[in-house]
Amino acid sequence: MKDYIVIGSGIIGALITRALSKYPVSVLVIDKENDISSHQTIANSAIIHSGHDPKPGSLKARLCVEGNAMYDTLEHELAIPLLRTGAYVVAHNNFEEQMLQELHQRAKQNGVLGTYFLSGDEARKVEPRLSETITKVLSLPSTKVTFPWEVSIHAISNAIKNGAEFKRNAHVISIEKVEDYFVLHLKDGTTLASKHVINAAGVMSDLIARMIEDNPEFEIKPRKGEYYVLDRKAVGLFNHVIYPLPTKAGKGVLIVPQTHGNILLGPTSYEISDREDESTSREGMKYIKEHLKALSNQIPFDMIIRNFAGVRATSTYEDFYIQESKTYKGFYHVAGIDSPGLTAAPAIAKYLVEEVIRIDLPMKPDFDPIHQPIPLFHTLCDVQKQIEIQKHPKHGHLVCKCEKVTEQDIINAIHSPTGNDTIKGIKKRARAGAGLCQGGYCESEVLKIISRETKVKPNEVNYYAKNTPILVKETKTK
After folding, report:
1. Residue 477 has pLDDT above 70, yes or no
2. What number of other Cβ atoms are within 10 A of residue 355's Cβ?
3. Which SS3 state, helix, strand or coil, does residue 387 take?
4. Alpha-carbon gap, residue 20 to 28, rounded angstroms
5. What is the spatial distance between Cα 311 and Cα 420, in angstroms, rounded to a whole number?
6. What 3-state DSSP class applies to 2?
């Protein structure tokens, strides 16, 4: 019996789990997938927005601005990457300049600080690749970029350090209220029990809600976003996040510098029926290229190394839905967390725990907010590298040349408290396969290391989810 079970290990569930681990309660975070942050958190724009866009007075507006500021603390406590890019929202004519002025007023209403205007020429002195048709820019200095799934992994690691637990491959298929607690029935036939449940299941959150309520106040209308990724050799081509003016469909097609040097281009935004459709399309890729012309005609598309898509948990509620169940006390919904959900995530966790749940307990005197991950070898100075090679000689074997990932880096990623034993799980943690060749040279080596370290046959090593081996059978004998 747990005090709290959190359903969903995306960035929202991860930071809620960490917030709960500050108190003397038992906490378990579960996910139906084989890893932490497998869907919305791993496939978004990675922007810590300023708060210029949400409707004034909404939870989105309040928690976006609060969350943006909280990332400065998380950077040090959780050792997460944070790139302070600032952002430009661009206009091309008098009509759009008036819209830009209205956006500026909205930003001020929402409490966004330090905003100012630049002419197109002034902006091009800073970002020379901006389109010549841009006439005016709204600068948003508080905009940042992070690496979303690293935030999740580090948050859950820190929560585990403070007593929480994590269970993967825990697919909830039904929920029942029994006396003063909830029983969660899992797909594998097992059950979990908890006094309180927090539904942070992203695009599945309304399905979870229907397991316990007849008519939830929200329904998820999933929207797909497709992206291009430029090789990290593109670092410095753009140093700000570049936005068009927002529309009802979202913030538009963006140019987004990334913490590891890549540049993200996209996304598209359209409603879909399949909540797990993460395929890309020729039409989507064409749409991105066409809409980028309004931002710049100097984008090096020959540096594209991959494309991907993600699904956002847009809801009919039109704001974040962070409320206790109207049917059962102790069951909480954190749903409809689309943009600016990543930005608001730390503030959402704080708001839920302090203002919705209102935990009436003193914080643990021994709560440790610090997470100290094992650094990747290539980030160390020469002296530290020599020390590490003496302790761990496998750092001397470079597996991924694109991202400078060593064999020991991969071993560490497998065996850490929130480690993973899949090809993509290692890519998320150590970046093996994230470079120019996208694993073309190193993936087979990564597979061999996983096989050896986990003592499973090579054809039993999964790509990501359960039962997704990338090898079928042995075709040669030694």
Report:
1. no
2. 9
3. helix
4. 10
5. 23
6. strand
Q: How confident is the model at residue 476 (pLDDT cuts 50, 70, 90)?
A: confident
The Cα–Cα gap between 85 and 144 comes to 5
Residues with active-site annotation: 49
Residue 257 contacts by C-beta under 8 Å, 6 or more apart in sequence? 83, 85, 145, 235, 238, 239, 240, 241, 263, 264
Expressed in angstroms, the distance from the first to the final Cα of the chain is 51
Which DSSP string corresponds to 41-85? Answer: GGSS--EE--S-SSPTTSHHHHHHHHHHHHHHHHHHHTT--EE--
- What is the structure's pLDDT at 18? 98
Whole-angstrom CA distances from 377 to 16, 260, 271, 367, 389 are 31, 15, 42, 29, 9
For the question of whether the overall pTM of this predicted structure is more than 0.85, the answer is yes
- Cα 100 to chain center, whole Å? 28
What backbone phi and psi angles, to 5 degrees, belong to 406? -95, 165
Q: Token match 């046959």: residue?
A: 457
Alpha carbon distance 193, 175 (integer Å): 10
- Three-state DSSP class for 87? strand
Rounded Cα gap, residues 193 and 21, in angstroms: 18
Calculate Rg over the CA atoms of the chain. 23
Identify each DSSP E strand in 120-180 by its residue range. Answer: 136-140, 144-146, 165-167, 172-178
Residue 351, token pair as written in the block = 């708001």
Packing angle of the helix pair 423-430, 148-161 (nearest 10 deg)? 90
